UniProtKB/TrEMBL annotation:
It is an enzyme of class 2 (transferase). The keyword Glycosyltransferase applies. The keyword tRNA-binding does not apply. It comes from Edaphobacter paludis. This is Glycosyltransferase. GO terms for molecular function: hexosyltransferase activity. Residues 12-135 form the Glycosyltransferase 2-like domain. Coiled coil: none annotated. Its EC number is 2.4.-.-. Pfam families: Glycos_transf_2. Keywords: Glycosyltransferase, Transferase.
Length: 327
């Protein structure tokens, strides 16, 4: 045991789940195989209609299981946190995977540097059991780590807010996060009202990274599984969720005027991106709503034409849309 370690585990692992009985065992196995064993694993079942309860009670009798009425993932995470008894909490979505040293590396950073109250890790995409060689951090711009200093061979500490950076590059998924329980409550936990909005975790991540120092594990110790039942499987739906989340942040987060301008810019750019998907799918009402809310400076001639077509009567719009797509 290193001098940084505590004699007893200092972390509770929180697993919200909904109808993931077929994924949950592999997720729980990856948590149970950690070289730094968690003090407890808490599964909050958000009203599943499959055999989640049976899977947990039959295969994992030491895992603490709580069932709630379907309320959204934010509420499930908050309730899981309310049951936690350890000074640190780590979230893991019920279809994601942890490498065996995930908790060990994160907790070593926190216990060696107690000023770090929250951290996140690098990750890889996992498809049909295969971990991609490329990691999330491979796509980061150098500016993302501009205010970071090396703390350990596998860890950085960022001494400044990452809020603005997160608006253009989002590497923080719930399954990568670990924080002190005090920090979780100090920033207000997850927003229950956003629990049914795709990309709801972005709002929480934005609030987290306003507070430095921020710990970063540079190794991909988390696997984010991609599959057909992912809530984020639709690019269009995910982008629309991001628009709603960023609008919420613009209205509710305490940020500088320059950050507000950046938020507005990112909302507009995401509206443009979503409009392409809506138009291609023949969803003219959605396309019209998206483009009508964009400032004129973002409307290129091509976008103006799409808006004109979307405002046309349905039969004409569909005829013109086919010509537009083919051209």
């Amino acid at each position: 045991m290193g001098h940084w370690e505590t004699p007893e585990s200092a972390v509770s692992v929180l697993v919200p789940t909904y109808n993931r009985a077929h994924f949950l065992p592999e997720t729980l196995d990856s948590i149970l195989s950690q070289t730094y064993s968690p003090a407890e694993i808490i599964v909050v079942d958000d009203g599943s209609t499959d055999d989640t309860q049976d899977v947990v009670s039959r295969l994992y009798p030491k895992v603490k299981y709580h069932r709630i009425n379907n309320s959204g993932v934010c509420t499930a995470r908050n309730i899981a946190a309310s049951f936690a008894t350890s000074p640190y909490i780590a979230f893991c979505d019920s279809d994601d995977l942890w490498r065996q040293d995930k908790l060990e590396k994160q907790m070593e950073l926190h216990l060696r540097h107690p000023e770090v109250q929250h951290s996140f890790t690098n990750f890889s995409i996992v498809t049909e059991g295969n971990w991609a060689r490329e990691t999330k951090f491979d796509g980061a711009r150098p500016t993302f780590f501009a205010h970071c200093e090396k703390a350990l061979d596998f860890a950085l500490i960022c001494g400044a807010s990452l809020y603005d950076e997160l608006l253009t590059f989002q590497p923080i998924f719930p399954s990568t996060t670990l924080m002190s329980r005090d920090f979780f409550y100090r920033i207000g936990g997850y927003k229950d009202s956003l629990g049914r909005v795709l990309s709801e975790d972005l709002e929480f991540a934005l609030r987290c990274v306003q507070h430095a120092p921020i710990g970063i594990i540079t190794e991909p110790v988390v696997g984010i599984r991609k599959h057909t039942s992912n809530f984020s499987g639709s690019t269009f739906a995910t982008t629309c969720g991001e628009i709603e989340i960023l609008n919420y942040a613009l209205q509710n987060h305490s940020v500088t005027e320059s950050t507000k301008e950046l938020l507005a810019d990112q909302i507009a750019l995401r509206r443009v991106g979503a409009s392409y998907g809506a138009f291609s799918a023949g969803r003219f009402t959605a396309c019209k709503e998206l483009l009508s809310a964009i400032p004129n400076r973002y409307l290129t001639p091509k976008l103006r034409l799409k808006l004109l077509i979307s405002n046309s009567p349905e039969p004409i719009a569909r005829f013109l849309q086919k010509l537009f797509v083919q051209s």
